[in-house]
């Protein structure tokens, strides 16, 4: 005889969980509107987010207490109370961005508006191993954070842009023909050294994200960004989302073969676009 296993679902637990989730989503929605469209009055935020005045009031007061948003003054009155404008606090925290090039690291400390607070460049030999460059990353991040200690700011994370195929979810470089590296678990290694989140992505996707958030792409739903240097790559945005492809290599246009018997490429093939149009 087969026993039936009956699972009792605690509906009260689910309701509490859903309330917490909804609260987090509403908070994120308010922050998003202020980052993208601010400064805004509470009435303008309510109109754009469809949140009730009471819900919005609780959220904005909580965000003000955490110093994530701030009041910046009053606007003109149309007969009633003057609207108070709110703005996202771009100096609430800071982040570190790292670009790995073929012979140097560029490390920048920025606020949450991508405004550079400090920047350093660390050279390394062409053909250096991933281990050597990771040691240099640790040295550089330590140096820039110790130099810029802020009492009223928080270090929120590190982002790394590197050429090649990247598993963004695992934080791992799968393969970079330009650097000659494969299977480099950046996040796993760096997470042991730093207590903040570590993010890794293809460098052109990182450029594309910056363009989407702060550049010409802000007002576009679909666009293609092409970078040409030592390597050639592209970033694709469809419906305001970066398209990476099934294996993260959608933007590797530099390795399309344009001349079957052309120049040798660093990827091991001949005639790639990068081998003919990239910088030597």
Concise description?
This protein is an alpha+beta fold. Helices cover 31% and strands 28% of the residues.
SSE diagram, text form:
Blueprint: H1 11-37, E1 40-41, H2 42-49, H3 53-65, E2 69-74, E3 84-88, E4 93-100, E5 104-110, E6 116-123, H4 130-147, E7 154-162, E8 165-167, E9 172-176, E10 181-184, H5 186-190, E11 198-202, H6 203-214, E12 223-228, E13 232-238, E14 241-243, H7 273-277
Parallel strand pairs: 4-7, 7-11
Antiparallel strand pairs: 1-3, 2-3, 4-5, 5-6, 8-9, 9-10, 12-13, 13-14
Radius of gyration (CA) equals 23 Å
What is the approximate shape?
A: elongated
Low-confidence spans: 1-9, 11-15
Total of DSSP H or I helical runs spanning 4+ residues = 7
The CATH superfamily label of the largest domain reads: ATPase, nucleotide binding domain
Please tell me the total number of domains.
3
Strand fraction: 25-35%
Beta-strand segment tally: 14
Helix content: 25-40%
H/E order of the elements?
HEHHEEEEEHEEEEHEHEEEH
Summarize the structure in words.
- This protein has 280 residues and is α+β, with helices and mostly antiparallel strands.
- It has three domains: 11-88, Winged helix-like DNA-binding domain superfamily/Winged helix DNA-binding domain (Arc Repressor Mutant, subunit A), CATH 1.10.10; 93-202, 2-Layer Sandwich (Nucleotidyltransferase, domain 5), CATH 3.30.420.40; 210-277, 2-Layer Sandwich (Nucleotidyltransferase, domain 5), CATH 3.30.420.40.
- The protein has helices at 11-37, 42-49, 53-65, 130-147, 186-190, 203-214, 273-277, and strands at 40-41, 69-74, 84-88, 93-100, 104-110, 116-123, 154-162, 165-167, 172-176, 181-184, 198-202, 223-228, 232-238, 241-243.
- The strands form four sheets. Strands 6-5-4-7-11 form a five-stranded mixed beta sheet. A three-stranded antiparallel beta sheet has the order 1-3-2. A three-stranded antiparallel beta sheet has the order 8-9-10.
- Strand 5 and strand 6 (116-123) form a beta hairpin.
- The radius of gyration is 23 Å and the shape is elongated.
- Mean pLDDT is 88; it is low at 1-9 and 11-15.
